[in-house]
Structures are given as C-alpha cells and as structure tokens.
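If you are new to this repository, start here. Below is one unmodified record pulled from the training split, so you can see the exact layout before writing a loader.
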Amino acid sequence: MFSNIPDVKLGMIAVSRDCFPISVSDGRSHKVVEECSKRGIDVFLAPTIAENERDAMAALEEIKAAGCNALAVFLGNFGPETPETIVARSFEGPVMYAAAAEETGDNLINGRGDAYCGMLNCSYNLALRKIPAYIPEYPVGDASDIADMILDFIPVARALIGIRNLKIITFGPRPQDFFACNAPIKGLYDIGVEIEENSELDLLVSYREHAGDPRIDSVVKDMAEELGTGNAYPEMLPRMAQFELTLLDWAENHRGARKYVVFADKCWPAFPKEFGFEPCYVNSRLASRGIPVACEVDIYGALSEYIGTCVTASPVTLLDINNTVPKDMYEKEIKGRYDYTLHDTFMGFHCGNTPFCRLSDGAIKYQLIQNRTLENGGTPDFTRGTLEGDIAPGEITFFRLQAAADTSLHAYIAEGEILPVATRSFGGIGIFAIHEMGRFYRHVLIAKHYPHHGAVAFGHAGRALHAVFSYLGVTDIECNREKGNPYSGECPF
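And here is the target side for that same chain:
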C-alpha cells in the first residue's frame, strides 16, 4: 500500500427500529462481520445498536474511539430514520448504507425485519438532510451479500478520504496556448481539496539547493536497478535524482495540514534547458509511489490520477487522447483479431511519464518534439529524460474529473483495453480500444469541452469511480454508450 493514500479503518453501526426485535438486527450484524472476516476485511462493530438518537451518538463515539475513518450503517431491520441518518451527518468520513434481506421463509413473523422497506425511508431522510452517502446498486442482501458490498465500498472510501486530505502543489502557469488545462480552482474547494500554487523559479531555486545532496547516490542506484538495460544515459541520473529529492522534500515540507500530496508541474518549454533534463522519468517514479505528477500544470489531471490511484491502490498514468490508428495498421494488425472498429481505437500518448511497471519495455530516451524545437534536431542533451516504450496490454479505465468554466464539476468514465499491438511510435504510448469510442469522442469529449488529457487506471474501475464522483456531488457523469443509446444532441439520422 502506498504511503500517499489512506488505509481504510472500517466501522459498522447496526440500527434497529424500536418496534422490531433488536435481536434481529444484532444477530444479522454479527453475521455480516463474520462474512467480512472471511474476505480479509477487518470491521469494528460498535457495541451499541442505535434505536434512538442517544444510542446513535453513543455508537458514533465508539466508532471514533476505535479510530475508524469510514462507516457502514447496517439496517438489520426497518431502522429508525433520524438516528440512522444523523450519524452520517456527524461522522467525518465516508458512509455507506445497506439493509438486511429476510433470512428464511420459516421465520417471517418474529424474524421479519422489513429492512427492504426501511431502506427507502432511510434514503429519503438522507436527501431531506442533504447528506451524501454511498448506497450500493442493490443495497439489500444477506450477510454474504452485504460483505461483498462492503468490499466494493472500501476503494471508494479510500478515494474519498484521500480527497478530503489532499493538497495539489503546482509549479508554473500552464504552457502558452494550453487553454485546455485551464482549471478554475473553486471546484477543488467544493470537494475539500487544498491547492498551493508556486512559480517555476521557486522549484528551480529548491533544485539548486539540493546540489550535492548526500542522498543522490542512493537514488541513482535505485534508478539504475529499475531501468536495467533501459538506462541509456547513466550520466543523466544524478540530475534526475536531485530533482526527485527536490519534489519529495517539497511535498514533505509543504503538505501543511494535509496528509497527501500530488503535483501539477510545468514541464516545457523552459524547464529542460534550465534544469538540464526532461522531468518525465522522475514524474513516472513518483506516480509509481502513489504521488502523481501531472504534466502541463493540469491540476484536474493530477486530481483524477490521485483518485484512480486510491481506487485501484496501484500506479496510474496521465495521457493525451492523442492520435488515430492509421487505416493500414488497423487493417493489418487489428481488424478480424479484435472486436473493435477503426473508430473504436486511438493512441494514448505522453512524453514519458507512465510508470516503468506499466511499460512493456521501458527505456530512458529524449523528447523528440522538444529536441526539434529547443535543440534544432541535433544530438540531444537537455531534452533527454523521458521514459519511453509501449504501454503493456490489458484492461484499462480512461476517466477524468474536470471543472468547467462556470466551476461546475463534470466527469467521464470509459472502460476498455490496451491492445497487444506494437505502436511503432515514440513516447509512452499504447493502442487503446474502447467500444463506441468514436461516438464518445464526439458527443462527450468534444461536445462537453473536455481537455485532451485523460487519466488511465489499469484495470476496470468504472463502478468505483462512478461511486466516488456521485458521492462528491457530480451529476454529469458520462460513459461510452452502446449502440442504440444516443447521447443528448447526437444526430438520430
């Protein structure tokens, strides 16, 4: 587990309506805890079952004393509407609600709980109080079902706890003509994220102060071991190690009241010449440790990466939705082998920030585009430092949380895969395939004004991401829709 994402300590409060036997809720809640234990989930069950407001507050104190930072409220029977909802208002972490199914047809008199009905009143009361909560897709089940719901809740809770305790640190304004990375920060405050904005000069001064840092040699050794045969420019490693230490020290010294930190840094055009290298490989290393560093001062890209890191508890990346797959390449290497049309495919690319563990065969190279611009296409010097290679094939989720110009939050989520087809190109790059990507590109990415950067989680994480965005109050969450399910504004002809 990364140190830059939370550990979830889960508590459970069982509730009981006073006109139902409390023993029903008590027995069912203990069965849920037993099922959770079978799945390796440690759950602290509050000794007090909440029948009234005083019980609810007592149970909440027990949860807090146990150090819990996430809460499951379990309706073992119908449940008392006020007590069961005010705990969510008073608890500082994410809260889920689930209700017990009836257990046997042989015990539907004294053993009937009516939690199926109670869940309706609970959700209604949450809405009246404007209290956000995680409610599973089908929130009623037996002990085994509820344990599975709790298992699904944990990555959601991890992300929500992380967001509430996150600071995004930026260096420099976005590059010229990169209006797509414009980011009104009010949306960050709305969901509890802090931001610290700095100049590139602040970073350069700190970098120079780290010259001769005695820790550089050990970082160089670690880099060399990671890269193996991909260590094409060993003489560059001390510079990059110095930069890595600069960022890590800045994170530690500037986290302030927050527990977790991510970066959004300006990486061109001035950076490589003044620092003496491209920052991409260092950015990749921090991302592999749960500290995403978004390119081009993309603060919502950094936030999206962090959410993906929390949800999957593994490294993510940030890529440009970059270029089409050529028709001849599609015809020869994709068509007939994989169930995708040409318009379902595209290439995701960035200069070299994808973690080494996500590449099929990574190596340190130089930024070809900036070499043309800044070094006249000659022998690369300060444009070296990218981590390049084809991204390893497998399931992915492409997603982003974004603030619009009016500061409202919007999000998209699209599950797909990276195909095992060589890109024959440069950078950290892969051939992505997402069903109905062509329509998604036109009627979500273009129509709703998303920037070209998207976060990539490795694996299918759409369900958890959707839950996180919904909990945060994001109402506009789009996905790649199947044929026959048109987008708003899509031409019907």
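Two things worth knowing about this chain: The chain has a mean pLDDT of 95. The chain is about 40% helix and 20% strand.
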